[in-house]
Amino acid sequence: MSVFALMVSAHPNDRASLHALQLARAASAGGHSLAMVFFIHDGANIADNRRDTPLSDQWRALAEQAHCELVVCSGSANERNILDTPSARRQGLAQATLREGFVIGGLAQWQAAASTATRTLRLGA
Fold first, then answer.
1. What is the annotated signal peptide range for this record (predicted)?
2. How many independent structural domains does the chain possess?
3. Assuming Cys at both sites, which of 43, 79, 85, 91 could form a disulfide with 96, CB separation 3.0 to 4.6 Å?
């Protein structure tokens, strides 16, 4: 079976974001594994808990079932002021803006996942 690494650069309201989720579900249901889903550029908005992004709960459920990480590009998160708990505390904020179930990571993590995957796909602009 194949190992997929998915990069999602589409905004959560964009059709390509839904297609990415559907592809990930189909791959998992077909017995394939997901090494990582990496959200970059506008795709990072999926992990912002200040926004109403219905797909985020569906991504989290899939990640739990498929045992894969949902990683948000650190640069994209920084541009959108999406902060994990340690970063929020350093800035004196009461709570993180990173949605539960997502982690912030860098392109090195993406590269590591992509180098071990048998299928690497990017969805979005």
1. none
2. 1
3. 85
